[in-house]
Inverse folding.
């Protein structure tokens, strides 16, 4: 795809295999924002084309106008979901941003696990879990401190809006390159060779899987969870949202975080000073004032 971007609705965004006008782009951007909160600026037009062109090819369409007609229909919910999933970047890896896991291991988890031994519940939430590396990293960190964690009331909720990513995550199967960032001692104990055809692959073992529950959830929708969380990971998600949407989600996190709980966010994200959080470590926050509401 090449050419100069022009923003008049009737004009083409650029030359390409499929006709794609600014009107098409703005229609897609409006739907994506309404359904997911993701903001697509005009500068993302080429990205939208490249990510959706293969979809148009697969379902036999000739133009983005035809595609817009499908996603605007009342019965187009499934295709809207496919479109939104295509707009997100599922970049993740085991133990990404290691400072968060160091904080958990050394400071946050020990008292929580002590309470779990006495019968208390411990809940963690990976709120945009993608293909599963983040929640499994949380589970591995817990097991490194408490190998019998599965015998206690400890659970990690792993949610994402993309059902395809969730299905991949639930398999717990990864390539050799994907499991490489897992600390060697944890990898030896909790990761095993997978019974899969083709290239060598590995899978997380049952004790790891049993700590995680995968659920489909759009952060803009109502949250069905009733209890609060001791740890929430929401990393590299807010960068897709406008300020109003971000502030709404920060406020909702504050309502479901335990008074002494920890919220971990992405390295390029910041929580506004107007939100009820205080920084306690690198990109890690607690409720301000010990959770007073």
């Amino acid at each position: 795809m090449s050419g100069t971007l022009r923003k008049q609705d009737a004009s083409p965004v650029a030359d390409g295999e499929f006709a794609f006008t600014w009107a098409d782009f703005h229609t897609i951007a409006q739907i994506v924002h309404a359904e997911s909160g993701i903001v697509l600026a005009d500068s993302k037009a080429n990205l939208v084309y490249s990510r959706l062109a293969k979809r148009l090819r697969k379902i036999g369409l000739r133009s983005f106008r035809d595609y817009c007609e499908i996603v605007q229909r009342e019965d187009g919910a499934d295709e809207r979901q496919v479109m939104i999933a295509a707009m997100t970047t599922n970049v993740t890896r085991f133990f990404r941003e290691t400072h968060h896991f160091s904080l958990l291991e050394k400071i946050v988890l020990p008292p929580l696990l002590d309470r779990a031994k006495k019968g208390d519940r411990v809940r963690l939430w990976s709120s945009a879990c993608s293909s599963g590396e983040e929640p499994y990293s949380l589970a591995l960190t817990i097991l490194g401190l408490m190998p019998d964690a599965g015998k206690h009331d400890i659970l990690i909720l792993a949610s994402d809006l993309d059902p395809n990513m969730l299905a991949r995550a639930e398999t717990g199967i990864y390539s050799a390159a994907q499991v490489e960032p897992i600390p060697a001692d944890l990898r030896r104990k909790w990761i095993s060779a997978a019974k899969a055809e083709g290239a060598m692959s590995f899978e997380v073992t049952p004790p790891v899987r049993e700590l995680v529950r995968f659920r489909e959830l759009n952060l803009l929708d109502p949250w069905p969870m009733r209890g609060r969380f001791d740890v929430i990971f929401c990393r590299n998600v807010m960068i897709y949202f406008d300020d109003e949407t971000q502030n709404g989600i920060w406020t909702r996190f504050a309502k479901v975080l335990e008074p002494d709980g920890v919220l971990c966010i992405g390295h390029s994200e910041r929580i506004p000073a107007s939100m009820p959080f205080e920084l306690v470590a690198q990109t890690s926050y607690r409720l301000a004032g010990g959770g007073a509401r």
The longest strand covers residues 257-265. The domain at 98-172+204-291 is CATH 3.40.50.150 (Rossmann fold). DSSP finds eleven helices and ten strands in the chain. The chain has two domains: 22-87, 98-172+204-291.
